[in-house]
Amino acid sequence: MKLARVALDVPLPRLFDYLVDGELDLRRGDRVVVPFSTRTRVGLVVELVTQTDIELEKLKPVTRVLQDAPRLSDEWLGFMRFLADYYHRPLGETLVHALPPRLRSVKPLPRAIRAAAPAAPSQAEFLAPHPPTATQATVIDHLTAALGGFHAFLLHGVTGSGKTEVYLHLVAEVLGRGAQALILVPEIGLTPQFEARVRDAFPKTQVALLHSGLEDTARTAAWLAAARGDAGIVLGTRLALLTPLPRLGLIVIDEEHDTSFKQQEGLRYSARDAAVMRAKQAACPVILGSATPSLESWHNRLCGRYALLELPERAVPGARMPRVRTLDLRAEPVEHGFARGSIEALRERLARGEQSLVFINRRGYAPVLACDACGWAAGCARCSANLVLHAADRRLRCHHCGAEAAIPRACPTCGNLDLRAVGRGTQRVEETLASLFPEARIVRIDRDTARRRREFVRTLDDLRRGEGDILVGTQMLAKGHDFPGLTLVCVLNADQALFSTDYRAAERLFATLSQVGGRAGRRERLGEVLLQTRFPSHPLFAALARHDYAGFAEAQLAEREAAEFPPHVFEAALRAEAPTLDAAVEFLKAAADAAPPPEAVRVFDPVPHVITRRAGAERAQLLMQSASRPALQEHLRALTEALQQPQASRVRWYLDVDPIEFD
Ligand code: ADP
Ligand code: ZN
Ligand code: ZN
Question: Which residue in 499, 486, 488 sits closest to 533, CA to CA?
Fold first, then answer.
C-alpha cells in the first residue's frame, strides 16, 4: 500500500493520509488535489509512507497530481518545516501559504503564466556602475572568498557608503558561477530606484520581482521563474525568502534593521533571522547590510556568530557625512513648530538652489481634533486611539483600523462650533512651509501621496532631477533614497520616542534619524542635519552627531543586559483578543496555568496592550522570557499543545516568537 502524507491549509496541526494509485507518478514535494470534507483542495506531499493509524475504509485516494510547477525540493520542505516548528504554526498552513495564490488553487494554471518562461537563459553580463573604491574592493574580496559555503556577514556601512554596489559585485560573481542571488529589501514599492539599479547592472539577467503588491498572475509568474531556476536574481520583500530556489548562491538582506522584515500576521517570521537559517541549509553566504544594524545583529556580531565588514566612509569622491546639530526648542523662538535656526537654514538652501527635507513622523494634518470648551477629542469607536484629521479630503481617519468619519461641524458633546486641530502631521507642515516660503516648490511624501504608484515614481524622479525645493515627509523618506541636490534635513520633533515605554524606541529612533539624516549631502556639498529637541544633551543625539553607531549600540546593549531584555534573553508573547479585556486576560491566565513553565523560562502576568482596543477587539498579552532558546521553544511547544484543547469561545489567540512590536 502506498500512502501520501499531505499538508493542507487547514487550522489543524497535523498531516492527512491519502491512498496513492499505483500508476500515479507521485513523489515527495508534489502538489496534489485531494478531497477534504465536502470539497477538493490543493495540498503538498510531505512524505510517502506504507502504514497509517487511520482505518483503511476511511482513506480516500489522491485525486490528481499537479505538474504545472516544479516539484518542491527536500531542502525547501526542510526550511518550511523549520519555520513552522520555530514559530509554532501548523505545517500545512505554512507550506500552502508559501505558494503564490494561483498555485494554491485546484484550477489549472492559465497557459499565459505557464508560457511566461523565457526563451533565452539568463546571462551574467555585469555593467558595474563604478569601479569599486579601495574599501569596497576589500569587502568584495572578502565576501567573494566566502562564496560556496555558509557564512553570515554583517555589512555595516554608513549611509551612502556604497553597500548596494558591493551587493551588485557579489551578485555578478554568483551569476558567473551559475547560481541564483536572492536580495531582500524592506518595501520595494517605496524604493523603485533599487530595482532600476539592479536591472541596469544586469541587463541580460532575468530578475524575478516578488512582493505582496503584485497581482496574482505576475507574482505567480515570478515565483515560477525563481523556482525553475530561470531567474538569476530574485528581488523582493520578506515573502521572497519563502521562494524555492534550486541554485541559491547568495542571500542579501538590505536595511536589515527594518521592522518590515518581521511578518505581523499568520506565520510571524522574521525574514532577517530566517535568512540565516536558509543560507545555512543552502550552504551559501548571507549578507545583512545596514548603516544602523539591529541590536540583535550587532549582538550576534559581538558574539562572533556574524563576521563584521565595514564601510566607514561615503563612496562618492569628496562626499562626507553630514554635520549633525541639535536646535534647543526651549531656547529658540519657535514658529508653527519650526525653530528659528531651521527657518534660516531652509531659507539659505532656497537661496542657493539646494534641496531640503523636513521630517515629521506623522501623516495627515493633525493627530487630534479637540474641543477646548469641554475637552472632547475625536476618537475611533473601535480603537482606543484618536482619529487623525486629514485636511486634503476633509476626513477623520483611524490609523489603526482604517475607520473613517466626516469632520463634525460642532462638538458632539457641547455643541461648540470652534473645534481645534491639535499637533501636526505632514499636511499641516506642508501648509506652514507654503506660508513661510511662498516661492518654494514643496513636495509632500507619505503613505497618502505614495498610494498612486506611478505618480509616486514620477515624483521621486523629479526630485532627483532637482524639481522641488522642500520635501516634507515621514520615515518613508528614510528608505534608501538618493537625492543628489539635497543638503539639509530638518527633524521637527523626535522627543516622543526618547521616553517611550517601549525599550526598542531608542534603537528605532537612532536608526530612523541616521537614515533620514543620511539623505543629506550625498555628493560634494556638505550636508547638514538639524534636530529640533527639548533635550539637546540627550546621549542619543550626541551619538548621532558623532556618527557613532557602535558607541550607541554598545550602550544600548549594556542597558538591555542590565534590564534582561533581548537580545540578551529570548522572548515570545501569547496574545489574545476578545470582546472584553477580562475575557482576554482570563484566557491568558488559564493558558499560563495549563502549561507551567520550566525553571529556565519566566512567564509574566498578562497585561493589556498600550492601545488596548483595536478594530473592536480588546487585547492583552502574556510575555515569556528565557536565556535559553531551546528551553523557551520547549515551553512554547507545551503551551501550544495545551491550547489545542477547546477554548472559551470568542477569544482569538496567537503566539509571536521574537516579537518586536507591542502597541
Ligand atoms: P548605500 O547602499 O550604502 O547607501 P549606494 O550603493 O547607494 O550606498 O551608494 C551611494 C552613492 O555612492 C550612490 O550615488 C552610488 O552611485 C555612489 N557610489 C557607490 N560606489 C561608488 C564608487 N565605487 N565610486 C563612485 N561612486 C560610488
Ligand atoms: Zn465640546
Ligand atoms: Zn480604529
Answer: 499
The total of structural domains in the chain comes to 4
Interval between CA 485 and ligand 1 midpoint (Å): 15
Which residues, 6 or more positions from 141, have their beta carbon under 8 angstroms from its beta carbon? none
- Using the 3D structure, point to which of 48, 73, 98 is the last residue of a domain: 98
Nearest Cα residue to 532 out of 385, 285, 345, 309: 345
Name the residue at shortest CA distance from atom 15 of ligand 1: 162
* Amino acid at site 145: A
Residue 225 and residue 162 share a domain? yes
Is any ligand 1 atom within 6 A of the Cβ of residue 316?
yes
165, 311, 479, 547, best to mutate for ligand 1 pocket (most atoms within 8 Å of CB): 165
Please state, in angstroms and rounded to a whole number, the distance separating the CA atoms of residues 431 and 337: 12
| 159 and 307 assigned to the same domain | yes
Compute φ and ψ for 220, nearest 5 degrees.
Answer: -65, -40
pLDDT digit string (tens) for 234-251? 999 999 999 999 999 999
Residues 56-63, mean pLDDT to the nearest whole number: 92
* Among 158, 164, 167, residue to substitute to test ligand 1 (most atoms within 8 Å of Cβ): 164
* Residue 28 covered by a domain: yes
**Ligand 1 contact via 521 beta carbon (within 6 Å):** no
Which atom from ligand 1 is nearest to the alpha carbon of 319?
A: 12
Distance CA 34, CA 63 (A): 5
Q: What's the predicted TM-score (pTM) here?
A: 0.95
- Give the separation between CA 17 and CA 561, rounded to whole angstroms: 48
Atom of ligand 1 nearest to the CA of 166: 6
> Does ligand 1 come within 6 angstroms of the Cβ of 205?
no
- Model pLDDT, residue 159: 92
Q: Stretch 615-641: mean pLDDT, rounded?
A: 96
The angle, 0 to 180 degrees and rounded to 10, between the axes of the packed helices 74-86 and 271-282 is 140
